[in-house]
Every structure is written in structure tokens, then in C-alpha cells.
Write a structure and sequence with these properties.
Length: about 230
């Protein structure tokens, strides 16, 4: 018997029907060269990861505009448009050559970041969670099954704010491919079905304020639209 009410399981809608149960959210840092450069880094450094809690997700239905609250403690909330990979199976030490078969589907996501808090933690050599893992910090559109959209290895990834372009890249520009990312993640963690991977953001990250509307897209997956209030 639970001594407290159990929290509701975290799920995401699937394009075409059904729901996907979420276990963990892994995020890849600085995985596009131009974004790494704008953050003060160069070269193909070893991949590194951070995590968000599953309940940081803000699901947005297809064709609708989601609403996220401007978070507390920050004056510099940044958008980061990302391709999200959803796993249908996992394992340890998964070879890159076999990693694609672990992918169940994809979605358009936003890694919202309290940049001022993240930068302060970096200066002090402290963890980033306060900058990355807050409520509603991961808006996400419906999952599209890989059987429907195919394996995504290239295609435009973009974000506009109030109709003005901010971020633009191509999935082929990833420093570490999705398969390589799964390989590296599985060396550190036991991956499982229900895990999501935010795969990194292209250059052009910047601040949003209440009243702004973000519109992100990944070729083949449609559009994620989120208003800040």
C-alpha cells in the first residue's frame, strides 16, 4: 500500500494514436559545431550528457500551441531546438552499428535553459540542474514512429521566435551521430525502452520573454509551437 498518492506515469502522445511511457531523459551537450563555438568551445570533444526529470516534459498536441510559464530565478531564459529520439529497446555497450534498431521514434523538442543560472554554476564548478532541470523545461511534440518517418540522419532543424528565424541547422551536422550517441550513452547507463534522448541544438540559441511564441521544426516531423507566459 502506498503511504502517499503515487504520481501519475509520464507519457507522450504518439502521432496517429497511442501513448509512449517515458522512463528517463538524457541530453547531449554541445553536439553541433557552430553551437559549440558560440558557447566558447571548438573541435570534436568527447560527448557529455546531463539529464532532466521525466516530469519536466511539456507535451504539445499536434497543431496546437503549448504554453509554458516563464520560470522563477532567471532573467535569461534560452531556447534550444532539438531532435528527440525515443528508444523502443535498450541495453549496455550497444555498438553504433546496431543502435538504430533501438530507436522507436522521434519528436521535436525544446531544451529550455535558465542560462544565467547555468553560467553561474559553471563558474563555481557546480552541477547544472538548476539551469536545465526545472518544470516545463522540455516542451515536446508528438512522437512519430520510425516505421512512419524512416530513420532520420539528415534534414533541416529550425526555430523562429515571433516569426523571426533564430536557429537553423541540419541533422547531418551533428558532431556525434545518433547511433554514436546511443553507443556512448549505453557505456555509462543501462538504456531501456521509454528513454528519451535530446540530441543537441544548432547555433543561434537566445533569450525569450513572456509573450514570445517559439516555433520549432524538424524536417519530417512537423512543428512544435510554444508560447511563453
Amino acid at each position: 500500500m502506498h503511504v502517499l498518492p503515487a504520481p501519475a506515469p509520464v507519457t507522450l502522445p504518439v502521432a496517429g494514436g497511442g501513448v509512449y511511457p517515458v522512463r528517463r531523459i538524457y541530453c547531449v551537450g554541445r553536439n553541433y559545431a557552430e553551437h559549440a563555438q558560440e558557447m566558447g568551445h571548438t573541435g570534436r570533444e568527447a560527448p557529455f550528457f546531463f539529464m532532466k526529470p521525466a516530469d519536466a516534459l511539456l507535451p504539445v498536441a499536434e497543431g496546437e500551441t503549448g504554453t509554458m510559464d516563464y520560470p522563477s530565478l532567471t532573467a535569461n531564459l534560452h531556447h534550444e531546438i532539438e531532435l528527440v529520439v525515443a528508444l523502443g529497446r535498450g541495453g549496455r555497450d550497444i555498438p553504433a552499428a546496431e543502435a538504430t534498431e533501438c530507436i522507436w521514434g522521434y519528436a521535436v523538442g525544446l531544451d529550455m535553459t535558465r542560462r544565467d543560472l547555468q553560467n553561474e554554476m559553471k563558474k563555481q564548478g557546480r552541477p547544472w540542474e538548476i539551469g536545465k532541470a526545472f518544470e516545463q523545461s522540455a516542451p515536446i511534440g508528438p512522437l512519430v514512429p520510425r516505421t512512419r518517418c524512416g530513420t532520420l540522419e539528415r534534414g533541416a532543424i529550425t526555430l523562429a521566435v515571433n516569426g523571426q528565424p533564430r536557429q537553423k541547422g541540419d541533422l547531418s551536422d551533428l558532431i556525434w551521430s545518433i547511433a554514436e550517441t546511443i553507443e556512448q550513452l549505453s557505456r555509462a547507463w543501462q538504456l531501456q525502452a521509454g528513454d528519451l534522448i535530446f540530441t543537441g541544438t544548432p547555433a543561434g540559441v537566445g533569450a525569450v520573454v513572456p509573450g514570445d511564441v517559439m516555433e520549432g521544426a524538424v524536417e519530417g516531423l512537423g512543428t512544435l509551437r510554444v508560447a511563453v507566459r
